[in-house]
Amino acid sequence: MISVIGAIMATLITVPYIVFFLVNKSIYKLTKKKRMAFKAGTDSTTFFLFLAIERMTVEIWGQSYYWILLLLFLLGCLFFTYLIWKYELDLSIGKILRLNWRLQFLILSIGYFSLMSYGIVSRILEV
To answer: What digits encode the pLDDT tens for the residues 14-69?
Structure first.
């Protein structure tokens, strides 16, 4: 049973967009709201993108650059804190984290596809 759960988790970390597809379709079937389903899909996929990018960097370069991902997350929080403070009076931690989490989805998606392309090309050129 543990090996089955491990295999499922490894698959979801390797291909995080499976999570997006499953959550998006499930929430849409339950609520019939496309926007809510899309947001839930992106929110749940972001966590798996963090893990996938960390594993890809270890596989490509042999060491983890997780500190860069954490720094990127903190810089996003600072960026949204500044924007909300500058243009609105309501500084809400929940709003800052939600906006940053969705920004991270966008940035990590670009990073995921870039690292995947780089990894495939570098493996082909090694042979």
So the answer is: 899 999 999 999 999 999 999 999 999 999 999 999 999 999 999 999 998 989 99
Residues 102 and 36: their CA atoms lie apart, in Å, by: 13
Parent domain of 35: 2-126
Which residues fall within 8 angstroms of residue 65, CB to CB, at 6 or more apart?
Answer: 54, 57
Which of 96, 101, 98, 102 is closest to 83 using CA atoms? 96
Q: Check: pTM over 0.85? Answer yes or no.
A: yes
CA 46/CA 23 separation, integer angstroms: 12
- State yes or no: pLDDT of 71 exceeds 80: yes
Cα dihedral 12/17/20/22 (nearest 10):
-60
Per the structure, the count of domains in the chain is 1
